[in-house]
Amino acid sequence: MSGSTERILKVRDLGVTFHTSDGDVRAVDGIDLNVDRGQIVGLVGESGSGKSVCTRALIKLLPSTAKIDSGTVMELTTGGGVVDIAQIGRRDRRMNQIRGGEIAMIFQEPMSSLAPTYRVGNPIVEAARLHRDLTKQEARHVALDLLERVGISEPSRRIDQYPFELSGGMRQRVMIAVALASQPRLLIADEPTTALDVTIQAQILDLLRELRDEFEMSIIFITHDLGVISQIADDVAVMYLGKIVETGTVHDIITDPEHPYTSKLLDAIPRLDRLNERLSAIPGDIPSPLARPPGCPFHTRCEQAIAGRCEVTMPDPIAVSASHLVSCHLHDKEAEAASATAN
Amino acid sequence: MAADTLTKPPKATLNADKLAEATQWKMVWTRFKRHRLAMVSAGILSLYVLIVFFADFVAPYGATARDTNYLKGPPELVRIWDGGPARPHIDSQITIRGGVEDGFAYSVSGLDANEQIRWFVHGKKWTFLGLFDSDFHLFGVGDEQVPVERQAAPSVSSGSGTSSSSSGSGDAAGSGNSAADSNDPFASIERDENGRLKLGIGGATTTTTEAVVPAATTPPADASSAEPAIIETESARGFIHLLGTDGLGRDQFSRILVATRTSLTIGLAGLFTAFVIGLVFGGVAGFFGGWIDYFIQRLIEVVRSIPTLPLVMGLAAAFPQDWSNQKVFFFTSVILGLVGWTTLARRIRSMLLTLHDADFVVAARLAGAGPFRIITRHMLPTFFSYIVVTLAIEFPYMILAESVLSFVGLGLRAPTVSWGVLLQDAQKVEVLEQTPWLLAPAAFIVIVILAFNFLGDGLRDAADPYQESS
Amino acid sequence: MARYTLRRLIGGVITLTIVSVIIFWIIELPAGDAADIYLAKKFQGGSTLTLKEIAAVRESFGLNNPFLVRWWDWISGIIFHWNFGQSLVNETPVNKLIGDRMLLTTIIIFATLFLTYALAIPIGVYSAVRRYSITDYTFTGVGYIGLALPNFLFALILLWVSVRYFGSSVGGLFSPEYKHSGWSFAKLFDLLRHMWVPVIVLGTANLAFQLQTVRAMMLDEINKLYVTAARARGVPEVRLIAKYPVRQALNPIISTFAFDINRVLSDAPVVALVLALPELGQLLILSLLDQDTQVAGAILFIMSLIYVLGNFVSDIVLAAVDPRVKLAG
Lengths: 343, 470, 329
Fold this sequence. Notes:
The structure holds three protein chains of three kinds.
Chain A: E1 7-20, E2 23-36, E3 40-44, H1 51-58, E4 66-76, E5 82-84, H2 93-101, E6 103-106, H3 110-113, H4 121-131, H5 136-149, H6 155-158, H7 168-181, E7 186-190, H8 198-215, E8 218-223, H9 226-232, E9 235-240, E10 243-249, H10 250-255, H11 260-267, E11 318-319, E12 325-326, H12 332-342
Parallel strand pairs in A: 3-8, 3-9, 6-7, 7-8
Antiparallel strand pairs in A: 1-2, 1-4, 4-5, 9-10, 10-12, 11-12
Chain B: H1 2-21, H2 24-34, H3 36-58, E1 78-81, E2 85-90, E3 94-97, E4 107-110, E5 115-128, E6 132-141, H4 152-165, H5 176-181, H6 185-204, H7 221-226, H8 252-288, H9 290-305, H10 308-316, H11 325-357, H12 359-366, H13 371-408, H14 419-424, H15 429-434, H16 440-463
Antiparallel strand pairs in B: 1-2, 2-5, 3-4, 5-6
Helix pairs in contact in B: 2-16, 3-8, 3-16, 8-9, 8-11, 8-13, 9-11, 10-11, 11-13, 12-13, 13-16
Chain C: H1 2-27, H2 34-44, H3 51-60, H4 67-81, H5 94-98, H6 101-129, H7 134-148, H8 151-166, H9 185-222, H10 225-232, H11 237-255, H12 257-275, H13 280-289, H14 293-321, H15 323-328
Helix pairs in contact in C: 1-4, 1-14, 6-7, 6-9, 6-12, 7-9, 8-9, 8-12, 9-11, 9-12, 10-11, 12-13, 12-14, 13-14
């Protein structure tokens, strides 16, 4: 997928630190990420790996205790210019134009994403009118069209219902309609299917793929589920404790994982062809972000950790193929070889 | 500061580790300790508790003892500097005599004695919970306050003469001591228990502390008629009035301490009554549910439909005038409970309903735990901490209700001393203007309520970590 | 909506009926009844009565009827004629004693609640949005003191300050020249000039309470996902706060409207006593001190009536603004 297409988001060395009463927590520790037009990028990791924080930082939705303390978020704007979102203030008017207008977001719990006392149509009309020059009537038409587009039957009745009258799957569809209403070019989907039934989950994934094709919209899809990723993503980035440890195409990651953590994640997926084996869990717990291990963050749970090395230095990303990057000392030899040939 | 920030992160992780393996009570305590205001409040409240037990010891004088040379006297400042560091003392005592006619034509006379504060002096005899007697008081001024007795015998007759002019107290004994004791329910209860023995001693020694007013210094007639107590103190050996005196020359500080004991006790009794009723109704409603629950819910709604304090007042107004102080005390707390149980019942009910379906209770049930084990091991610990929090939050309302009741004259009556009774004296603008220090009990009320509010907040946050702490 | 309203209405009537029974029981609670007091006056007047005559008097007062009959006599007078009977102490109708006190009480309640909400909502919202700011700490601190300072003490302190430093008392609701005059604009204006003191005294505790409620609700709501979701679609901050969390935080205020009425009604009597306000609460205490439970009972009933009405209104308004309420019943 990568190559000649237009790059709309380029994140470099993004770092986010939470200042808490128990100490500082660097939740996102210098990550790089690229998103091309029409591309679906999967961001995978356990809870606490910083994947949500990272994407919320992109549109400055972080709580006031969190600070972006390094890096750039270069976004190719609708007008064609490039803007560094990291430099725009949280309350800046420009930021409100980007939120929704250029980058929209949907969330994990559709149950609580909608304000309980407003009718379903309200947030869609609101989003449409905030970012497009529409009258109330026009916006209502847009809302009806969108509700129909995201697969809600009887939109003209549903539009005046209250959220509590809708099921979880329908609410997530409404949230997608809200996101589409402002015609963004990038949609951040923060575990949008985690809280839903498996069948509904598949429907939503299908819908997102269709919408990507129809509107040429890019999607950053966050999940802890590599199975979901394999169904929807083009490129994948695997996060662990605030760092991206491996990136590649979905094919690279699923068939040829290079980082021990990625392999472990894949082993933890139940598979029909291996029904008789025990699922292997990753040993140990994810370390407290307050006491980050030095060196490679995964060394405390890694069975192949190299003593005297992994707990000392953080490995740099190494290209194992043109599209596939991994940060692991196990690949140091290839790196040396690569740098030798380069020289 | 630098050291503090450096040590902080490890401390936090250490705490987290400790919390993970601590018992529930240790956990609550650890979290409670972090709540600084609540800790300070707990400290202040323990001072109040000490006062409840040792009011007689800390108070330099009895609640009805009168210093006729210092009527309506302002608070006396304790000085520790007298051109140089000095032992704590009060400045030479100013004698203020209330004029008979207008009540505030002062005659001021300075005594030269620079009165030093002395610790553990002898004074009025007191009894600790009916267990032992003592005449030691925490502090006093002047010479050793050995209970020197003068004119005890002759004064009795003149004293009863004064008291008979006031309509009340046909106190046949006429002894200053028994009148003083009937001030507070503790003393009277204690007297009931070993009254005979005490009277014997009283005749010999106790009356000695308080001599009776010679006619010349008798306060204005109206003032004395308000108070049947005729205890009178003679001031040659000096007095200290940290918070001034009232129109009868009674020491505010001593009176407030005794009042603190009364008010807190009655508040506690009211709270206990409310708790018992609330536990029964709330427990039944939450446990049985169905129509019983519906009925109790309606009952609660009905009780809440009558504004609280007016309801309390309406019930208290039915007290016959001839009831003894103990009886009034007892029934006041009953009324407080009768009106105040609804909040507790509601909370207990909803707590039971939540607990019944709580995941950990369901899990225990599925794991095969019997009802006894579920109740004692799983429900009670959660329930108990919740009850403690609720009680801490409710207590101030009880204190407040008693104060209001006594303040308007429908609750406890003089000579019983409670915060409300004390403030009753300050109800009139003229009194306030002359003796603003009579508002001092207000500070005690405000502080105790504040402390309970903070304590309640701290306990709630400590007992329920999942609740938003603000 | 109609069914919901009807259900609430019936509930209110039932509550009020039981309340009236309790209040009537309180009226009859003290040792002496109306006949005793009447007879005592006769005796004082020097007349002698036979036992038969005494019994006749008791009969004429209806005191030999069963409790529920006596209650019905009392409550039907109120329902059908708004007649609260005779005072026990002075031979005046209770209605006359109450006079326009009911109006004054109602005015004080609503002025107090208006002040409370007008201040509590903006300040509470601001405190929550600017959490841990100096303003937040200041108002939280003031709120705690407001909660801890009992109304009547606050009134006493104001009274003392006004006398001590301004040489005039802040008591009363009218200047002397309007005390007994009929209603006029001048009298109304005079009332407004005097009313701020009781309104502030009564409003403070309520304000402190509502401040805490609004702030806590706001803190709760402000972190909810639907607020983040709205922010993520680019709703400007001020509009966002007003449209989403504030709108939600108003619901508990509406639902506790009746409790606020109850609190003010509960606190008002002793404040009225201290400040010498000629309203219902003051008369309540004075008549209770006189053991005139006929007057006191009437006032208790009126207070409960105001509360139940307020409760009904708040239920209806809440159902109108929050669609979920009707379902819950």
